[in-house]
Amino acid sequence: MKSRIIWALIACACCVVLRASTADAQSSDSTRGYDGALRFESFWGNAKIIRGADGPVVGTAGWFRSFDVEKVVATSPPALAEARVFKTNNFRGSVVGSIGALATVVGVVVAANGSNAASPILIIGGVGAMGWGVQHMNTAVRALSRSLWWYNRDLARHGAPAPTVGRVDPVK
Amino acid sequence: MSRLSLVLFVAQLLMMEASAMAAQESGYDENALRVESRQGNLQILRGIDGKVAARGGIFHGPDLSDLVIQSDSALAEAKVFERDYQPGQWLAGLGIATLGAAIGASRINDINPVIQVGLTATSFVSIAYGAKKLHSAYGALSKAIWWYNRDLKR
């Protein structure tokens, strides 16, 4: 009876030690997996997508930038859905914002060269279009933030492979 | 009887293992941060639900240090963010205001040209220096969030 209790205690001790070492290994694996996680830095309406804290620039997205975020986050379905929202809004924002800026400049030039009934319409319409474009660009950047959040979550959880698209430059 | 207790004990250990793994996964889902901008204001959101963890407005940034204090690397970046964000916003704002003053001065016929040149130069320098500070601040913010989320996994 005593020996059985001793064997039971030894078995339990082995389980506890095994569990502790497994937890350590999982923890360090998940941290290592997260080292390939993505983040973005925004500047002047563009967003540099960077892998790791000081890692390479995977690509630059933003004003008329055709960088394929969908391809980078393709391994995570929720990230992919957000990347599509980013792509749609980024394109709309770029096009409408640019048309708005052009209309505003034309309106100001027309107004400066004499009175013309079209100039107030161009200026008001242009500023409105620029505002609409900025709104869409903001929606795009929010979607990009969510996309990378989901991608990093699934990367840390499953250690998904990290495809690299576009140019790869060291972060300055 | 002792065999039954042994089996029960091992089963309990396995259940503990499963719940520990679930807790590790929910750590990121519930606590990982991300940054979003709404109407020009910075917001730091937490978890899947996107609860607002900190918010910054015009001329004041979110309290990042308090938020990421658990991670040393994140805290170091948060301090860089807090050092650069507010001065960057003030300088950029001052530059835009000075540019407006320079445009206004250009409409006055008998103004000293030195004042006009001075205002224009000040505005460009302020905007450029403010933009540099803001660029540094946004970079540090991105890194701070990245480090915080990474260290959640430990």
The coarse overall form of chain A would be rod-shaped
What sequence of helices (H) and strands (E) makes up the elements of chain A?
HEEEEHHHE
Number of helices of chain A: 4
Q: Count of DSSP E strands of chain A? A: 5
As residue ranges, the low-confidence spans of chain A are: 161-172
Summing up helix and strand content along with how strands pair, one would put the structural category of chain B as: mainly alpha
Total strands of chain B: the figure is 3
Oligomer: heterodimer
Main sheet specs of chain A = 5 strands, antiparallel
User: Major sheet of chain B: order of its strands?
Assistant: 1-2-3
The domain tally of chain A reads 1
Which percent band covers the strand fraction of chain A? 5-15%
Write the layout of secondary structure elements.
The complex is a heterodimer of chains A (172) and B (154).
Chain A: H1 2-34, E1 38-43, E2 46-51, E3 56-62, E4 65-66, H2 69-72, H3 77-112, H4 118-158, E5 169-170
Antiparallel strand pairs in A: 1-2, 2-3, 3-4, 3-5
Chain B: H1 2-31, E1 33-38, E2 41-46, E3 51-55, H2 64-67, H3 72-106, H4 113-152
Antiparallel strand pairs in B: 1-2, 2-3
